[in-house]
Amino acid sequence: MTNAPADPFQGETHGSDQPSPIMPPDGIKDDWSDADWETAAASPAAAHSDAAKAALAGFTGEAKILNQEEIDRLLNFDAPSGDGAVLSAIERLVNSTTVNKDRLPMLDVVFDRMVRLLNTSLRQFASTNVEASLMRIEWLRYTDFQDTIELPALIGVARAEQWDNQMLVSIDSALIYCMMDVLLGGRRSRPGRIDGRAYTSIERKMTERMMKVILQDLGQSFDPLAQIDFVFDRLEVNPQFATITRATNAVIRVRIAVEVERRTGHIDIVIPYSTLEPVRGKLVQMFMGEKFGHDTVWENHLKNELMRSKLELVAVLAETKVPLGEVLAWQKGQSLKLRINPENAVLVFSKTIPLFAGHMGQRNDNIAVKIDTELDTKQELIDGLLSH
User: Fold this and answer.
1) What φ, ψ does residue 41 adopt, rounded to 5°?
2) Phi/psi of residue 155, each to 5°?
3) What is the Cα–Cα distance from 123 to 120, expressed in whole angstroms?
4) Which of 13, 111, 195, 280 is most buried, with most CB under 10 Å away?
């Protein structure tokens, strides 16, 4: 009598060279799938491999711990390219999903001011207690924002009039349904389940009014930096119809959480980075009114010193063209006749820049020039001196 082997994968060997079929342990026979039976029947020797033992360990309640190499291979980390070549720096830069951005400290100040304005505006809009708070400000690509929109949602497209560009305001369904309950007198009702149905005309009109309130507060928040009016354009349900920039362009998404009657929703404000380009110089300031090292005292001192400096002026009575051959034939003491009269205009130059125009005259037995007009190049000269 032969004892049964301890290993469930070990079978008895008979007269033939082929090993006996593998039988699963008692209690798990019904748990084996057809694929497991086919694998074990096709190659009994493979049952002794680590993969087969790991599969059986899953049935028996045991767990196999993967090492770091197996985890990286499973998640496709550090996977070589098809030709085995290492990606170049340019290819890594092109394939990068990160968004290079400038630090805009004043943007935090703008939206912090907007949250304070929203607390007052939404309380008046809903006639109840509303708490708005700034959650985060993110820099991402526009296609990434479209992928993160929680549908169903209403997306409003607005125009920045002075900047000649567009932006988006997205309100999630939780906040829309909450506002509907509050405005229609259902303050104590529990939050309803979001079933993905189409929005009614009443919900769309209410959301449009709410977006106009948000845009008005956003415009007031930018007032200390620049005068800007955000005008509501249209309301969209499909994110594809609300596209305002290229998919790979950088945008700034500001998420504001709004709590109404112990129910919470959020508002997303999406502004393309190119929209903020007209005021980017002010948004990079660390605080309001920063001069970036601009010293007015030194500027006034330099201006006063320039005004006291001496400048050599040349009055040109007339100009004439003479052939080079005649110029080479000139002798010492020779007189040149310039056919001019006192009515001709005289130009006053500083180096090669004409500054004034006048007429020639005489004063105290000296030849003088009476300045009649100032030329436009005078201001250009002053600006050029002050800029340096």
Assistant:
1) -75, -35
2) -120, 125
3) 5
4) 111
